[in-house]
Design a protein that fits this description.
By secondary structure, the protein is α/β, with parallel strands linked by helices. The chain has 2 domains: 2-60, no CATH class; 83-270, Vaccinia Virus protein VP39 (Rossmann fold), CATH 3.40.50.150. It is 41% helix and 17% strand. The protein is built from 13 helices and 9 strands. The protein has helices at 2-10, 16-28, 32-37, 45-59, 64-68, 92-101, 117-125, 138-151, 184-187, 192-195, 200-203, 211-220, 239-248, and strands at residues 70-73, 76-79, 107-111, 130-135, 157-161, 174-177, 229-233, 252-258, 264-270. A 7-stranded mixed beta sheet has the order 5-4-3-6-7-9-8, sandwiched between helices. A two-stranded antiparallel sheet has the order 1-2. The longest helix has 15 residues, at 45-59. The termini are far apart. Bound molecules: S-adenosylmethionine. S-adenosylmethionine (SAM) binds next to helix 7, strand 4 and helix 11.
């Protein structure tokens, strides 16, 4: 462990102690807390070899979740493969605010479903609701399907290949999306953990990063159920622009919610009872 921490630190891994502990726990099949509790235990040769392989991968800046093949999100495990964005903790804000707005027996649409972390967390939390997840990537939809099954919610979710202007036959009460929003200029500054491992399609729509918001808000402001909500995750510094797009589309009761770092991350707007 000590040696791995030094090597990971020297390679510029941000939290070498935590990552070494998670990787050792993963290869030994134990809880990370037990790595601390059992620090004087011997690790056998097979365990040491597996640990070395995992450390080598992390030294190349492959994120821990991708080495383990899963990530915890909203208290549940989600399978993560190279075909999907590694779910981020700040996206839990969108789930939390979405759940608060979903009526009993409601329907939710998740645009750019990726691993399924948003819609599937909601369905797992709320046995009364059903949902649809849309993604342009068939490979991402296959991962979402595996996660739906693992969580036992596959009967309540439809996973459909399509673009931002896809809408289910049945009207929904809530449209959520964590779309690609990184600007073309910011792409060059991303860490290797992100740029080398998250799908490009999941990161950026190019230019000012707002293209997906423009399409989603303009289209779904007229299709979500009257009094229903649209909620999107925003990149740092984008919440004002996103709220302006919502206002322009006629949405009301606009609200933005900050993440733990104080950055406005989730923006919601409501379709009024009458037009649009
Ligand atoms: C930022 S990721 C979000 C994934 C997941 N919802 C999450 O929060 O972790 C954006 C997702 O949008 C999908 N996507 C990109 N362009 C799209 C488009 N034009 N229409 C539909 N989905 C798209 C990507 O394949 C990717 O899965």
């Amino acid at each position: 462990m000590r040696e791995a921490v030094l090597r990971l630190g020297a390679a510029g891994v941000e939290n070498p102690m935590r990552d070494a502990r998670l990787l050792l726990a993963h290869v030994l099949g134990i809880d990370p807390v037990d790595v601390i509790m059992r620090e004087t235990d011997q690790v056998d040769a097979a365990g040491l070899t597996a640990f070395e392989v995992a450390v080598q991968r992390r030294l190349k800046h492959e994120p821990v979740s991708r080495i383990r093949g899963w990530r915890e999100f909203y208290g549940r495990r989600f399978i993560v493969t190279p075909d999907v964005l590694d779910p981020r903790p700040e996206t839990e804000l969108l789930v939390e605010q979405g759940i608060a707005r979903l009526p009993q027996g409601g329907r939710v649409l998740d645009l750019g479903v990726g691993s399924g972390c948003i819609v599937l967390s909601m369905l797992a939390e709320r046995p009364d609701v059903a949902g649809e997840g849309v993604d342009i990537s068939a490979a991402a939809l296959a991962v979402a399907a595996r996660n739906a099954e693992a969580l036992g919610v596959e009967a309540r979710v439809a996973l459909v290949q399509g673009g931002w202007e896809s809408s289910p036959a049945e009207t929904v009460d809530l449209v959520l999306s964590n779309p690609p929003y990184i600007t073309a200029d910011e792409m060059g500054a991303l860490s290797r953990d992100v740029i080398d491992h998250d799908p490009h399609l999941a990161l950026t729509p190019g230019r000012d990063g707002l293209a997906a918001y423009r399409a989603i808000i303009a289209f779904h402001a007229r299709r979500v159920r009257p009094c229903g909500w649209i909620g999107v995750e925003c990149g740092a510094g984008q919440a004002d622009d996103v709220c302006a797009l919502m206002a322009e589309a006629g949405l009301v009761e606009l609200a933005a919610y900050a993440d733990l770092a104080g950055i406005p991350r989730a923006a919601f707007g409501r379709r009024p009872q009458k037009a649009p």
